[in-house]
Amino acid sequence: MQVYNAPIRDMRFVLQELIGIGDYPEIPGLEEVTPDLADAILEESGKFCTEVLLPLNATGDEEGCVLENGVVRTPKGFKEAYKAFAESGWTAMASAPEWGGQGLPESINKLVEEMSCAANLSFGLYPGLTHGAYQAIVDHASEELKQTYLPKMVEGTWSGTMCLTEAHCGTDLGLLRTRAEPQDDGSYKITGSKIFISAGEHDLTENIIHLVLARLPDAPKGVKGISLFLVPKFLPNADGTPGQRNGVTCSGIEHKMGIKASATCQMSFDEATGWLVGEPHKGMRAMFTMMNSERLSVGIQGLGAAEAAYQGAVAYAKERLQGRSLAGAKHPDKPADPIIVHPDVRRMLMTMRANVEGCRALGGWVARNLDMMKHHPDPETRKEAEDFTALMTPIVKALFTDLGFETASIGMQVYGGHGFIRDHGMEQYVRDSRISMIYEGTNGVQALDLVGRKMPAHMGRYLRAFFHPALAEIDAAIDDDRLSDLVQPLSKAFGGLQLCTAEIAQKGLRDPEEAGAAATEYLRLFGLVALGVMWLRTAKVAHAALDGECDDPEFYKAKLVTAQFYMTRILPQAAGLVAAIRSGKSAMMTLDEMAF
After folding, report:
1. I want to staple 124 with a disulfide (CB 3.0 to 4.6 A). Which of 116, 347, 449, 464 is the partner?
2. Which of 168, 277, 270, 177 is nearest to 217 (CA)?
């Protein structure tokens, strides 16, 4: 049986003590965002996820989605859960008030996303995709399209998708063949096929709004010839209700390893009516608005899966009796000790805990910058926040999903043989979390984005958005004796990151394959250092709390122990990554293709 209770205490710590939302009421547009409001939202979301979404997770996995006569039926209970989710206002949280949204900050919204993905990842994909589509329409569509579609999407009556991938092209979208023919009334006829479309067809909403990449007749070759179109499942009537069925059909659903309650569809567009979003041939610019939003959300999916796996592993480790402690019986009144007494089980649990809480802290830092980028009145502060977010987006997506899958796999190991069977639900977390490393750009693509785009951008300006505050964090702690055991390994790893950054930049100028060969290890190194910075910051806050009159000393003591574990047992991986990065491309690129 799966267990999940929203980690409200840790989320409150991140919001109020680590990233500090206490100053939000001073920022235009966030005047009503107080710690009390955040607490209330987290409590209600946690209750909904535990009571409504979690019970549907295992049953939804067993039942899956079914395609009948072109219509996808979601598992039992999903339609009712989605209706309750929308009516409770969760679909409107982070949307602008002018479209019916609540205008709440991403720092809170991302924690709500984490809860829904931890309780039921398949369910969380439906509203998550809609919010990404909403953002692309807000930033790039005409006022008429906004007025027609955004209010319904915000209230959750209509949902959204993005349709990129075709059978013959995935990441290389320049090869796509879907075409768009202009019509006299300003609309377009869209014809083509797409695959792997999450939430492409389902029974949760009245209408589904597809954002589709296609080519105009005069389009140049490659990605410079791609345009973006809004294509609804039903053409809206004048009164805003769904009208005539558009030329959009689901021709099949994928039979997947995991997220089986999320409808992953093969979509066919047969002269479907659509409208241009943004400028002709500039569709990638508009689509990247949605993709970047989704990449951050996919990172949060990894975090949610990791939290659920961690809670399940802890519960099992406390109740499973097996063997005696190496130091002597810890529970002599029982026939055996619970496995949580064994060092290797502790190693696994502490690794899971350090990964989960570290990613939540780093995610909070990124989310705060999203809020500053959108709301802060100072242009320079907004620009710095935008630089930081651009740099960290591929890191959050790849690192969080890598660690999400690794953490779920560790959770299965804690269960032993019981983890490999369905009874406890741990194997579902492993299967469900695996896709997050693949979609929205594989993690290898994220690494190439980091070294190929973000690292050289604006003469390294994006890098400074992280390096400067990270160095300041280290320098501020270097003379604190209580933090010396944490600062030393972090300072060493940070130095390795700086060294590798310079070497990759130099080698990459001479040979792009050198940068490509180092990319994945470099992203992991960057991510580990970023988590280290957050653990150092966490330890500072914990010490300060213990120096005062805190009402929860055990919470802060646990933070210090976990920070110590991270710095001494996980961060040392940085040394191996530095060595691999500096070894160059030769060992992986020398072998002839035919020798494989």
Report:
1. 116
2. 177
Structure tokens at 36: 């009390």
Find, among 33, 263, 237, 233, the residue nearest to 125 by Cα: 263
The tokens describing 259, both together, are: 């997220």
Residue 372 near residue 381, CB atoms below 8 Å: yes
Residue 256 burial (10 A CB sphere; 0-12, 13-18, 19+): middle
Answer yes or no: are the C-beta atoms of 274 and 190 closer than 8 Å.
yes
Strand partners, 234: 245
Among the residues of 278-342, which ranges form H helices?
283-319
pLDDT digits (tens, 9 = 90+) for 10-21: 999 999 999 999
Backbone angles phi, psi at 271, to 5 degrees: 50, 45
Q: DSSP per residue over 263-294, as a string?
A: -EEEEEEEEEEEEEESSTT-HHHHHHHHHHHH
Query: Alpha-carbon distance 557 to 536, whole Å?
Result: 14
Angle, vertex CA 110, rays to CA 304 and CA 91, nearest 5: 105
AA letter at 145: L
- Cα distances (Å, whole numbers) of residue 362 to 11, 151, 274, 369: 12, 32, 39, 11
DSSP string of 531-570? HHHHHHHHHHHHHHHHHTT-S-HHHHHHHHHHHHHIIIII
Task: Give the residue numbers marked as catalytic.
Answer: 440
> Strand ranges (DSSP E) for 406-450?
none
Q: Tens digits of per-residue pLDDT, 536-583?
A: 999 999 999 999 988 999 999 999 999 999 999 999 999 999 999 999
231 three-class SS: strand
Q: Which position has the token pair 């090869």?
A: 175
Backbone angles phi, psi at 551, to 5 degrees: -95, 5
Helix (H) or strand (E) run with residue 251 in it:
strand 248-253
Run of H or E residues at 372? helix 343-375
Residue 425 DSSP label: S
Asked if 588 contacts 596 with a C-beta cutoff of 8 angstroms, the reply is: no
Q: Is the pTM of this model over 0.70?
A: yes
Q: What is the mean pLDDT of residues 449-458?
A: 94
